[in-house]
Amino acid sequence: MSYAISGECCSDASCVAVCPMNSIHPSPGEPGFGTGASLFIDPRTCIDCGACADICPVDAAQPAEQAAPEDVERNAAYFAGADPLDAMDLDSWEAPSYQVWGGGPRRVLVVGAGPAGMYATRELLLRTSAEVTLVDRLGDVGGLVRYGVAPDHPGTKQIISSFERITQHRRVRWMPGKDASDLWAERDRNGWRKTGAAGSLPERFDAVVHAVGAGGSRRLGIGGEDAACTAEDFVAWYNGRPGSALPVELAGPRAVIVGNGNVALDVARILLSDEDRLRGMAVAPEVRQTLAASGITEVVLLGRRGPDEAAYTQPALQELLAAAGDRVELRYHARPTAWTADGLALDDGTTIAAGNLFTAIGFEGTPVDGLPFDPDRGIVPNVRGAVVGRPGHYVAGWIKRGARGGIGVNKACAQETVMTLVSSSRVPASPGS
Question: What Å distances lie between residue 338 and 165, 302, 329, 361, CA to CA?
C-alpha cells in the first residue's frame, strides 16, 4: 500500500519536509513547484509510513485504497518514465560547494543509528565536509524501523537499505555494536581508561549528536503490573531484536491490551494472526510457533480515554478490523486498577478475564550520562537541538522532542538539529536566552 495526494492539495510542502523517502514532488526549488494544483507521491518509493497524512493541513494525503482512483492514477502518472527517486542514495555525493559551517567543528560523533541518527548523519554529509563517526550498541542500523515496525509491514522497512548506504559513505566511520561510553576514553598501557563523562567532549571529536531515542516504557502504575508484558518487550521479541526475550507465557483465549495507539493495534493484529498469515511474515520460526500455539483468539483493546482521543490512525484500525474484526473488542473510558490472577480489574468494580495483559501506552526518555534531563517531559533540555549548558552537544529524535511522531518526523527534526549545529558557535545558557 502507498499514499496518494488528492485534488484538494494546498501545495504548502509541509509533507515534503517529513517524507523519509523523498517521495513527494515537485518539492520547493524543483521545476513546477507552486505552479500546479497538486503535489504527487511516487508509489514506487512510498513506504506507507503515513507521515504525510499526519502533517497535511487539509487531509489531502490518503492511503491509496481510500483515495479516488483518478487521484491514484494521477500520482502514478506524474512519475511515469522517470527513474525511482531516492534522496538517501549517496553514490554520487560530493562535498557541497557551499559551507554553512564557518569555522565550526569538523569531526562529529553521532550516537544512535535509528532514523534520527541516520537523518542527522545524512544532513551532516550534505551540508558540511565533516567526518562522521556513527555508533550504535546494536549491530545494525535502523533502530525502531528494524525492530519496531510490525513484520507484516515489510514495505516500511525498505528504508533500512537506504540507511545502510549511508554507513558506506567515505566520510562515515560506522561502528556497530559499540557502546558510546567507550569513546569517552583513552588507551594507556593497561588498556582502556575513562577520561570523562558524556557531558564533556571526547578529545578527538568537535561535536556530538545524541540520537538515543526513548528507552523506557511508560507504566500504568497499578498493582500486578510487573507480571504484564510491555509492547516494547513484545515487539522486540517478535522482531528478533538481539538480546530480547518474551517475558511472559502466552495464555489464551483472551488478552487485554491497554493503549489506543498504532503500536497497540500492531500487537493485537500479530496476536490474532493465524498460521497462514504468520507464515507470510519475516519472523523467526520459534516466534511463529509460539504465536500459533498461544491459544489467544480474542483481544480487548482498552482505552483510558474516549474514541475521539485515540492515537491510532484510521488506516491502522481498518487494517486490524479487516484481519480480525470479529475477535477484537474496543472498550473506552476504562481505568485499570490491578492485574490479578482473575484478569484486569477496572475502577467500576468489574474484571476482564484474560490470560495476558499487554501495556502499550508509549515510551519515555531516560537520562543520558553527563547531560541535563527533564524527567517530566522525558527529554534532554535543548534549544532547537542544542543541549542547554553543554556546548558541543546536540540531540535529535525522541530524546530531543519526546516520544512522539513517526519515521518521517525524525527527518525534519534531525535537519533542525544539524542546522543549529552548523550555524551556531555557542549553545544558549537557557531555553529563553
Answer: 48, 14, 20, 16
